[in-house]
Amino acid sequence: xxxxxxxxxxxxxxxxxxxxxxxxxxxxxxxxxxxxxxxxxxxxxxxxxxxxxxxxxxxxxxxxxxxxxxxxxxxxxxxx
Length: 80
What we know:
With 80 residues, the protein is of the alpha+beta class. The protein has 2 helices and 4 strands; from the N terminus they run E-H-E-H-E-E. It has a single domain, classed as YhbY-like (Translation Initiation Factor IF3).
């Protein structure tokens, strides 16, 4: 799934979309549009804000102006 972030930036609507997307998926792609501020520092700051808001089970990777978010499985699903 792909979510675009534009001139409104990060708002509660984006976080609601992300939470709903992660109910059925493990990976979500977030694309920063030019109106969101096209700088590498801004992309990293937005990614860190998203991960801190979602929780510690999420990680990110930045390629260009695209943020790939991944939700890791909890320990109860691993075989012992």
